[in-house]
């Protein structure tokens, strides 16, 4: 009897979780249905498009050309990949070296350096965002990789 009760409880919990997951994923399904639906419709009437088309993706890939610009979605993709890879790799290298020094080396001012590094993590990014932007503008690095 106990086994049956546990099975019913587990099944009910799984059903509730599946319904919750579907509810949370509905906007994603709606986005995909809209992406694969022709531009004739303002919004798809169902989550399964009737006339599947890839023309929206081709239009999105060449979208900036509609504004007589030489920048395309490929440029945006390259910028995103390049910056994320370089920043992640640089962060891993620099942060792991700093962590090694703080964890295993003894030097004068080690505790001060540690607490200063810890204090910078406690400052919200919104506090330093405007000053950082102003510094980037003053250096002339706006819209360049150097600003990163």
Commentary on this structure:
- The radius of gyration is 26 Å and the shape is flat.
- The protein starts with a helix and ends in a 9-residue tail after the last helix.
- With 148 residues, the protein is mainly α.
- The protein has a domain of 61 residues.
Give the CA-based shape: flat
Mean pLDDT: 87
What's the helical proportion of residues?
A: 55-70%
Quaternary organisation of the protein chains: single chain
Number of strands: 0
Rg to the nearest angstrom? 26 Å
* Main sheet summary: none
SSE sequence, one letter per element: HHHHH
Helical/strand content category: mainly alpha
User: Spans of 5+ residues with little confidence (pLDDT < 50)?
Assistant: none
Please give the count of helices. Answer: 5
**Could you tell me the strand content as a percent range?**
under 5%
The span between the termini is 63 Å
What is the compact description of this entry?
It contains five helices and no strands.
Task: Give the key terms.
0% strand, mainly alpha, single chain, 5 helices, 148 residues
List the helices and strands and how they pair.
Blueprint: H1 2-36, H2 55-61, H3 73-104, H4 110-122, H5 125-139
């Amino acid at each position: 009897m106990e086994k049956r009760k546990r099975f019913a409880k587990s099944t009910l919990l799984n059903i509730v979780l599946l319904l919750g997951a579907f509810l949370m994923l509905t906007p994603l399904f709606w986005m995909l249905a809209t992406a694969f639906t022709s531009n004739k419709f303002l919004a798809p009437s169902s989550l399964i498009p009737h006339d599947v088309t890839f023309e929206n993706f081709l239009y999105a890939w060449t979208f900036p050309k509609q504004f007589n610009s030489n920048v395309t979605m490929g440029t945006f993709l390259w910028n995103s990949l390049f910056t994320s890879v370089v920043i992640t790799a640089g962060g891993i290298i620099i942060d792991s070296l700093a962590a090694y020094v703080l964890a295993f080396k003894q030097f004068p001012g080690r505790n001060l350096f540690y607490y200063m590094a810890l204090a910078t993590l406690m400052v919200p990014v919104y506090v330093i965002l405007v000053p950082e932007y102003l510094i980037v503008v003053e250096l002339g690095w706006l819209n360049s990789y150097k600003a990163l």
